[in-house]
UniProtKB/TrEMBL annotation:
InterPro entries to which the protein is assigned, alphabetical: Amidase, Amidase_CS, Amidase_dom, AS_sf
Protein name, as recorded: Amidase
Listed transmembrane segments: none
Pfam families: Amidase
Gene3D superfamilies in alphabetical order: Amidase signature (AS) domain (3.90.1300.10)
Sample GO molecular function, one term: catalytic activity
Similarity remark: Belongs to the amidase family.
Domain Amidase per the UniProt entry, residue ranges: 26-456
Length: 480
């Protein structure tokens, strides 16, 4: 029996199952033992459904790329009949679903053994995971005083702590890439509409949100993308077709690429010196691999985009609350401060503002496309402007929703890079290449033109081969 899932990636674990060296039940036992031993410190795994997992094994798992591998769903979206959800909120605690979402149907077909969900902030808003419905914050296995990120913070913490090798997440403003950066993992946001949204949502946050995974290896993400990509029935739009699969793309290096490196924010402000140094080191690595690297940053209207993003998400939060409460105002015993503030703010907006904001997001996407047209193939930057924040800094107590997002010291100052590519729809990834002097992970961010997922993930795999990160483990995962 394998007693520690903290080293192998999901592909390796599936290979052991296929060779008969370990059984799915033994892997599940190990994952549940890791939950018991490590989860009290990080508060990442919730709504455990061991019986559902045991039943799936007993009835026979699908023969897919991750057959027998323990798995966790984010507690936001990924609707599943067998996995009730709190959706990060006391208002939605214990929600059950009448049918499975398309994304869960495709993930289940890979053969994963899902046994629970991972924590998320209320409404999926924010770069930290500290929802009241879970009784406390989710903490970072690399440093328990620090956040694991958000909104897929529970997924990032669970993988970094060695509980599972792969976990589902989603990304509407960096919610896969922020935890990846915070937890020393790989996180990839595909091109808009690469993955299905239905049937519970037509699109997420005007097309800015999409599912994804927190993984230890590029190959795990590539295999899961290949298994899950493609529109579901009735999808309003689809991503450009790939020329080859993600798995095939990572099997060989990409062509030599033109890389624009930005060691500031995209509007020219300084980032933490350790973060800037990690970006420059990544640039030197890419140069050593034969890529052409030179300074550059987009001239797109980032402040306009972030205001539009804030308004769209505020309206989405208000709509979610209204679906449960109607026109009644949300009370503090059911809804946390940031979401109450979003509800109140959305009610001040003119009825035409939502469509105006969507139009601004689309205009911004055209600006970003123009940056890549005839210019760089890849934009290299930091994922976050500083190492992982302390727990409590981005708690949801405030009702100043706009200030929380784009005010001084707010989320956007901390995470000024990720939402850019949710708005543009372009593929982007966080790669665990940097470490602070105190031992906290620092992610490096790579983005590519719309639809160029294969080239981006191939570059990520080349970086992984040149600067392997698999053996770097969080102290909690090492049992210390």
């Amino acid at each position: 029996m394998i007693g520690d899932l903290g080293v192998a990636d999901a592909t390796e674990l599936a290979g052991l199952v296929a060779k008969g060296e370990v059984t799915p039940s033994e892997l599940l036992d190990a994952a549940l033992a890791a939950v018991e031993a490590r989860n009290p410190a990080i508060n990442a795994v919730v709504l455990v459904q061991e019986g559902v997992a045991r039943k799936a094994i007993a009835e026979g798992l699908p023969v897919g790329p991750f057959r027998g591998v323990p798995f966790l769903l984010k507690d936001l979206g990924a609707e599943a009949v067998d996995f009730p959800s709190h959706n990060g909120s006391r208002l939605f605690a214990g929600t059950r679903y009448g049918r499975d979402s398309a994304i869960w149907e495709r993930m289940r077909a890979t053969g994963v053994v899902c046994f629970g969900r991972t924590t998320s902030p209320e409404g999926g808003v924010g770069a930290a995971t500290e929802s009241a419905v879970y009784g406390g914050p989710t903490r970072n296995p690399w440093g328990l005083d620090h956040t694991s990120g958000g909104s897929s913070g529970g997924a990032g913490a669970a993988v970094a702590a060695g509980i599972v090798a792969i976990a589902h997440g989603s990304d509407g403003g960096g919610s896969v890439r922020i935890p990846a950066s915070s937890c020393g993992l790989f996180g990839f946001k595909p091109t808009r509409a690469r993955l299905p949204d239905g049937p519970y949502a037509g699109e997420g946050w005007a097309g800015m949100a999409i599912d994804g995974w927190l993984t230890r290896s590029v190959r795990d993400t590539a295999a899961m993308l290949d298994a899950c990509m493609g529109p579901d029935l009735g999808a309003p739009y689809v991503a450009p077709a790939l020329k080859r699969s993600h798995a095939d793309a990572i099997s060989r290096p990409p062509r030599r690429l033109r890389v624009a490196i930005c060691d500031t924010t995209f509007t020219g402000e300084a980032v933490d010196p350790e973060v800037a140094e990690a970006v420059r080191a990544a640039g030197w690595l890419l140069e050593s691999l034969g890529h052409h690297v030179e300074p550059g940053r987009p001239k797109a209207d980032v402040p306009m985009m972030m205001r539009a993003w804030t308004d769209i998400v505020g309206v989405g939060s208000a709509l979610s609350i209204r679906s449960k409460l109607g026109d009644a105002p949300p009370s503090p015993d059911l809804v946390e401060g940031v979401a109450r503030g979003a509800w109140a703010y959305a009610n001040t907006l003119h009825p035409t503002r939502y469509l105006e904001a969507v139009g601004q997001i689309h205009a911004f996407g055209r600006q970003m496309a123009g940056f890549f047209e005839g210019g760089p193939d890849i934009l290299l930057s930091a994922t976050l402007a500083e190492p992982p924040a302390k727990v409590g800094r981005f708690a949801h107590a405030t009702e100043d929703y706009v200030g929380y997002r784009i005010g001084p010291g707010g989320i956007f100052e901390y995470s000024p890079f990720c939402a850019v590519f949710n708005a543009s729809g372009q593929p982007a990834a966080s790669v665990p290449l940097g470490w602070s002097a105190s031992g906290l992970p620092i992610g490096v961010h790579l983005a590519a033109p719309f639809g160029a997922d294969e080239e981006l993930i191939a570059l990520c795999a080349e970086i992984e081969r040149a600067a392997p990160w698999a053996m770097k483990r969080a102290p909690l995962a090492r049992g210390s």
